[in-house]
Amino acid sequence: MSDPITEFVTFTPRDLASHPSAPFGAIASTLLATPGVESLHTGPQHEDPATHLLAIRWTSHAAFTAFAASDRYTPWLADLKALLAGPPRFHQVRLAHAAAAAAVLTAPCTEIMTAYDIGRPLFPENLRLFSERMAAACAAQGTRGWHANAHGEVTTPIAREVDGTPGPAAVLLIGWDSVEDHALAKGGPGPILDNIELIRTGRKDVTLHHYNLEQLSRDLGSLTSATQACFRQMLRGSPSNAHGEVTTPIARDVDGTPGPAAVLLVGWDSVEDHALAKGGPGPILDNIELIRTGRKDVTLHHYNLKQLYM
C-alpha cells in the first residue's frame, strides 16, 4: 500500500545577496536523483523572505528511510548545513489527497497553517472537515485565486519554537494565486468564514505563512532559479563570464527533440589557458559539480571570433 509523505525543511540561507532564490545546486541534484523523490519545491516565505522552505514529496516513507540510511545522506546533510545561517528544521506530513497536495505546492502562492499541541482525535477530524468543505465550496463557487487544499498530521511531535516542548501537530496547505487572493477570501462571507470555527479550538498554538515555491525537476528547464543561482555562485566576480537561458527549445542534434537549454560563455586568451585553468585546483574544479547534474546533455566548443564593424 502506498504511504506517501511530504517533508518540509525550513531554513535560512547563509548568503542571500548572492543566492536570492535557491542556494542548492548539488544539494537539489542529490535529492532529484534519489529513488522515491516524486517532486521538489523551494522558495522564500512572503512574511520573512530570509526564511526559505524546501518541500520534498516522497512516494513512501520507506523511500525516505532508505535515503536516510544510505551513505549519501550524511554528506548531503552536511553540505546543506554548510549553506545555512543556522540549523534547518525538519518535519514530515502525511497529506490526504496526493493530487491536491501537488496542486497546492505548484500554486503561485502556498499558504501553510501549522497547528501545535493538537487534541486527538477531535482536531484532525475538524481539520479534515474544514479543508474538504472549503475546497468543495471554493470549487463550486469559483473562488478567486484558489487552487486546492491539502491537510494532514505531522508524523512526529514538533514545537513551534526551537526550544519549545514538542507535541502532536497538523498542517493545512492552501494554494492561491497570491496573498491578496487569500486575504480577499477570508475577509468576507464565504467558505473560509463559514467553516473557520472548526479549527479555532482543539489546538494550543498556530502559525500561518505564505511561500512562493518553485518546482525543481530533473529537466534543466524546470530548474530556473536553482540553475541561475548555481551559475551566479560559480561566476561571481568573473567579468569575462556570461550565462543565460535559450529563449526557445533546441536540440543537440539536428534530428533531436527540442527542449529547454542554457548557455555558459567564458572568455579566454587561448584554448591552452582554458585547459590549464580546468586541469588543476582552482575556481573551475571548486564549482564544477554545480553544473554536472540537472541537464541531460552538454556540448563544449571554442571559437575564435572577430567583431565586425559597420
From TrEMBL:
Gene3D superfamilies: 3.30.70.100
Protein name as catalogued: ABM domain-containing protein
